[in-house]
Amino acid sequence: MLLPYLYKTKKEVGLDEAGRGCYAGPVFAAAVILPKDFYHPLLNDSKQVSEKNRELLRPIIEKESIAFSVAAVCNNEIDSINILQASFKAMHLALDALNAKPDMLLVDGNRFKIYRQVKHTCIIKGDGIYTSIAAASILAKTYRDEYMKTIHQEYSYYGWNDNKGYGTAFHRNAIEKNGLSRYHRKSFNIMPQ
Q: How far apart, in whole angstroms, are the C-alpha atoms of residue 134 and residue 152?
């Protein structure tokens, strides 16, 4: 059972990213402020929720949230600043786009870059612990999946509609056969030797 909040009196925003370990495409991040009494039986860490249920949850989270936003950092910038910094940047961009000011950031993971002097807490596996982080994980994942399905139409032989840019055997074989696309992360050293 997810916890509804860390501090009852603070306006908390949950932060999570999707696509950090992918070979291709941007890293996406979402920021979500939920009412303290928000509950949905299907809500959990996006990796524990089926694609069908993630799609079902997305409009509910968007409608019920006090505020939400989603941002992305492209593969070229990931190559330029590294994936960790790109993940932080995507989270900061999502926070910039929020139309409500949080008092506290609940960040999934063990590291974060201070954002405008707003207090933050890093929570390892936080997307399976706190409601707002779980909601952020659902939004980041569904927005990213949608993006990968769109660019799949341009490069269908990589199977991004299915693997979403992760380094599956199918994706690795397609790289070996076709080389890298303009959406691949060159800094990930994914070109076969």
A: 27
Eight-state DSSP code of residue 8: T
CA 58/CA 175 separation, integer angstroms: 32
- Give me the CATH number covering residue 122: 3.30.420.10
Asked whether residue 27 is domain-assigned, the answer is yes
**Do the Cβ atoms of 33 and 68 come closer than 8 Å?**
yes
User: Is the distance from CB of 32 to CB of 71 less than 8 angstroms?
Assistant: no
pTM of the model: 0.97
Residue 3 lies in a domain: no
Q: What is the pLDDT of residues 135-186, one digit of tens each?
A: 999 999 999 999 999 999 999 999 999 999 999 999 999 999 999 999 999 9
